[in-house]
Write a structure and sequence with these properties.
Blueprint (H helix, E strand, L loop, with lengths): L5 E2 L2 E2 L16 H13 L1 H11 L5 E4 L8 E4 L7 H9 L10 E4 L3
Parallel strand pairs: 3-5
Antiparallel strand pairs: 1-2, 4-5
Length: 106
C-alpha cells in the first residue's frame, strides 16, 4: 500500500500489522466487555507466553477477530511478510522479526 497511502482523505492501514485499532467503532458496553475478557484471559495469555517463549514478540487478546480463534500479525515497526519474501527472493538479507500472537475474544 505504499504506492497508494490514502483514498479520498482516508488513510489505508495494513490488517496484517498489529496496530490496527478498530476501537473507535465499539460502544461503551463493548469496551467494558473487552476489559472483562482481558482479565479473564490473563492466565491463558501467560501460559501461551510460556509455551511460545521467545518465538513471538508478544501474546495478546484482540477484539477484531470474529470467525477465527487466533492469528499471527507483524509488529507495526516490522516489514510486511510479502516484503520479506520479496527481499529473500532477490537475495537480500532480511532482518529477523518475531510475530505477535493474537487470541480472539471468543
Amino acid at each position: 500500500l505504499s504506492h497508494l497511502p490514502e483514498y479520498e482523505g482516508k488513510k489505508f492501514t495494513s490488517a496484517t500489522q498489529g496496530d490496527l485499532d478498530l476501537g473507535k467503532l465499539d460502544s461503551e458496553e463493548d469496551k467494558k466487555e473487552q476489559e472483562k475478557q482481558e482479565t479473564e484471559f490473563a492466565s491463558f495469555i501467560e501460559r501461551v507466553k510460556k509455551v511460545l517463549g521467545d518465538k513471538v514478540k508478544e501474546v495478546r487478546i484482540t477484539h477484531r477477530l470474529t470467525a477465527t480463534p487466533s492469528c499471527i500479525v507483524a509488529d507495526s515497526d516490522d516489514m510486511s511478510t510479502q516484503m520479506a519474501k520479496l527481499m529473500a527472493q532477490m537475495g537480500q538479507s532480511v532482518p529477523e522479526s518475531k510475530p505477535i500472537f493474537e487470541r480472539g475474544k471468543k
